[in-house]
Design goal:
With about 190 residues, the chain is mainly beta. It has a single domain, classed as Protein Transport Mog1p, Chain A (3-Layer(aba) Sandwich). The protein is built from two helices and eleven strands, in the order βββββββαββββα. It is globular.
């Protein structure tokens, strides 16, 4: 087993997909309450999902501000529905934006650059109606399998907080999960 220096980056190619492997110094794990169906930490946003979503270990969970949930009851032949909740980051910390409109513009540019077909892009009230936010619904038909995404986001302290619900494009939408995207908040 070879140990790499902190901050050293290695790349590994499996199939045709590059995977970045980074060795980062260990940090003291954050203590989180057990048995709750919401995502919360000082960094990540919170979202309350309907029953059936299982929180997954994302590896070095104390180093990531992404929380992953899977719904195994809606597993198709080759895909399990996901929900991801995160605060977008750049190499220096949170991605800072001046306004919701700027965040939406940047997000749409990224989706279009990624060959997504955007079906819905509209304002929405997020965090139980307390915050102005945005809702996107889009597909990526070139994925294997083709995928459908529903996403909501809002801005707090200049940082972009978002939650994404992914499912196989041929799988019906879980309306309760879709509605849960609107309860995305910075605090639980």
């Amino acid at each position: 087993m070879q140990i790499h220096a902190p901050g050293e980056t290695r790349e590994l190619v499996l199939s045709s997909s590059p995977i970045r492997i980074e060795h980062r110094p260990q940090r003291k794990p954050k203590v989180r309450a057990r048995g709750t169906a919401s995502v919360a930490s000082s960094q990540s946003p919170a979202v309350k999902l309907p029953a059936g979503w299982d929180k997954q270990d994302f590896g070095y969970v104390d180093l990531n501000d992404v929380t992953v949930y899977l719904d195994w009851t809606k597993q198709s032949k080759n895909f399990v529905s996901h929900v991801l909740a995160t605060t977008l980051k750049d190499s220096d910390g949170d991605i800072k934006v001046a306004s919701l409109q700027a965040a939406v513009r940047e997000r749409l540019e990224g989706l279009r650059a990624g060959a997504a077909t955007v079906n819905v892009s509209e304002p929405a009230r997020i965090c139980h109606g307390k915050r102005p936010g945005w809702f996107f619904s889009y597909t990526k038909l070139w994925d294997d399998p083709p995928l459908h995404f529903d996403e909501s986001l809002f801005i707090a302290n200049g940082a972009v907080h978002l939650v994404v619900y992914m499912r196989a494009a041929d799988q019906p939408e879980d309306q309760r999960t879709r509605k849960a995207l609107m309860n995305l908040c910075k605090e639980p």
